[in-house]
Each structure stands twice: as structure tokens, then as C-alpha cells.
Amino acid sequence: MKRIRLTSESYAVKVRSPRQLGITEYRLASRAPPGGVTPLAAKTIPDPWLFVTTGVLTLGGVLMVGTSSRYVAMRYWNEPGGFFWKQILFALVGVALVFLVQQFRYSRLANRRLLLVLFLCCFGLLILVLFMPSIGGAHRWIPIGPFKFQPSEFVKLFVVVFVASMLARKGDQIDDPWRLLIPCLTVVGALALLILIEPDLGSALVIGAVVVAMFFVAGLRRRHLGAIVLLAGAAATLAVIVEPFRWRRIVEYVLALFGLAEPSYQVQQSWIALGRGGPLGVGLGQGHQQAFFLPAAHTDFIYSVVGEELGLLGTLGILAGFLLIFWRGVRTVVRTTDPFGAYLALGLTSLIVCEALLHIGVCVGLVPPTGLALPFISYGGSSLVASILAVALLLNVSQDCNIQA
């Protein structure tokens, strides 16, 4: 069998066709010229399915924020489009980040000095936010002029990057807890503890679930994995016990689960919204539940507003979007040959899908209210920008897969 090996220095090779030359197999060499970028690599584009899906979800989210926040915006600013225009601004920032991230290679994030700087920034911001004014009984936001910055949304991204870099560097030592597991849990645990103090149990649970998923795929021993789950479960139980409102939510959820009490007010209003929508919904902007019946309609329960205004078709469309992100993320994990890229793609995909499933689970009554936003859809600059940034990094890894292919 004849072969021809094309190096990256072959900028243009004029041939009639491989078959006419008797070539049955050819390869593109992975060796790049000095500078690190081949001419062919520079023309490679990221995953178009992932890019388009994220764009559609973000655009749909902007529209749903506009329709679900009218009454709240009127109360705050006497202007029904206040939240809508802010969400557009946040979306534009996210789009700019997508193109900016594509100019750099994701592997730079594995630099130890950079990780140390990012950890100190995350730790400092989580300390600082505890001294900020309380909003709704929680210290989660840092006021910056007319906007509010939520550090925990970006801490989730740092945790994914940090754990991915540790697994890539020390994956062969995964059976030695002192070399890999304990250092990872120390850093992640310190950040998760500060998030719990805010308090923000939902974000802490998401971090725990993502880390467990990454270690599971990495091949961590079952007894070590079980110890992590037990430790996280004990911490979550303690966090529920020490906060009366959390304990009340759990009790209401358990009693309603066994039919011993009515569901909580939020869940009841969410069910009314989902049931009122029917198959096709009442129409965009025609919903009634966001008129102060459904609490936090533009953030914590926006999926229910989608169900009321766009019906079952709209809710299934959102589910299909996140399913597509999951598929393309897993495809990227499987195709990449770089361990850091594989773990990074795994963590980012798990983060987006886990947050979406928890939000949807709350809206349909399967999970107690957690206060988590629906990625790309719910109102919130920190949530939207962090979600788009996660996809930008995932696109960067997928671009590297296309170069290798």
C-alpha cells in the first residue's frame, strides 16, 4: 500500500487526485513549524453545532428575560425593558469573550503560576463578597456601579480548570490520595465552604457533582469516590441543618413527596405555569404567572415561564438544546488526545448540563428550590457570561480536535 506523508511545510501541493496517483491512504503530519500554528490549523473552525446551539439558547434567553421581567422591571425602574436591555449587554460581552478566547490555546490555562493567581483571586473575591450588603438574605453579589458581580459563577469555572490540570498532570497517581485527591479536595473544599457561607448551597452542590464526575471518569477507586460522596453529603446535611430556611424547604419537599402536605408555594405556582401553557403555550408575552404570582420568574423559575408562554414545545426545545450541548461535549472529550483538554471538556460539559438539570428539576418539583439559574436563559450577567465563557473554552478544545483530525 502506497502512502504519502504531508508535512505542515507543504503549503500547497498540486496533484490530480490521490486515486490517480495510486494512493490509498494519506496522513497529515502533526509536526508544526516554529511558532506552533500550522497554516491548515489556522483555518480550522470550532464545533459549529455547539456554536449555533449556544447562540440560539442565548437569543431565546434574552427574549424570555424580556417577557418574564416586565412587571419586576416596572416596579424597580418604571420601565418594562430594564432587565431586557441589561441582558442584551451581557450577551454582547459573552459574544466578545467567545472570539477573544479563540485567539488563545486552552492549554495555557494549565500553567501552575496562572492557576495560583486565579485561586488567590477566587479566594479573595469569595472573602470580599461576605462583607457586601445582603440581598435576599444572602451575600452573593459585589456591587459594581449599576451592575452586580457574582464571584461563585466564575469560581465554578476555576474549579473545573484546576481539577482538569491536576488530573492531566498526575492522572497516573490517582490511586495515591496524598499526591492527587487530597490536594484537589483541599482547594475545592476551601472554595466550596466559602460559597456555603454566603449562603449558596446550590452552587456548592454543582461544584461537588462536577468534581465527582471528573474523578469518576478518571478512574478513581470506588472506595475513594464513595468517601468523597459521603463527605459532600455530610457537608450538605450540616448546611441544611444550620439554616432554618433550608431545613424548612427540605421538610416541605419530603412531606409533599409522600403526600402528607401541599407542595411549597413556589412549586405550586410553577406547576400552574407549566400546566397553563399546554402543548403550544399561550403566546410570547401573554403569560400571567410572572405578574408577581411566580417568585423570581426571570431567574430561578424562568423554565416555568417558558412552559407557560411557549408550551411543551418550548420546554422540549430547551431540553433538546442542552442535550445537543451534552452530545457535542462528550464528542469533544472522546476525540481529543490531550488529557488536559479531555478533562476540561468533561468538566465544562458536566457543569452546564448539571446546572440545567437542577434548574429544570426545581421547576417541575423533582428537586427542592436551590436558587440556580438556567444557563443562557435566566437573567443575570455573571451567570450568562460565565456560561458563555464555559462554551468558549469548550469550543477552543473542539477546535484543537479538528486540528488533530
In summary, what is this structure?
The chain is mainly α and 405 residues long. 65% of the residues lie in helices and 3% in strands. It is built from 14 helices and 4 strands.
Q: Give the mean pLDDT.
A: 86
Query: Cα-atom Rg, whole angstroms?
Result: 23 Å
End-to-end separation in angstroms reads 22 Å
Number of strands: 4
Continuous helix count: 14
- Strands of the biggest beta sheet: in what spatial order? 1-2
**What is the string of helix and strand elements?**
EEHHHHHEEHHHHHHHHH
Sheet/helix structural class:
mainly alpha
The largest β sheet comes out as: 2 strands, parallel
| Helix content bin | 55-70%
Approximate shape: globular
Q: Give the strand content.
A: under 5%
How many domains comprise the coordinates? 2
Q: Please, could you describe this protein's structure?
A:
This protein has helices at 39-42, 48-68, 70-77, 82-101, 112-129, 151-170, 177-197, 201-218, 222-242, 244-257, 265-277, 302-335, 339-364, 381-404, and strands at 3-6, 25-28, 142-144, 147-149. It has 405 residues and is mainly alpha-helical. It folds into two domains: 50-103 and 245-405, no CATH class; 115-242. It has a two-stranded parallel sheet. It has a two-stranded antiparallel ribbon with strand order 3-4. A hairpin with a 2-residue loop joins strand 3 and strand 4. The longest helix has 34 residues, at 302-335. The radius of gyration is 23 Å and the shape is globular.
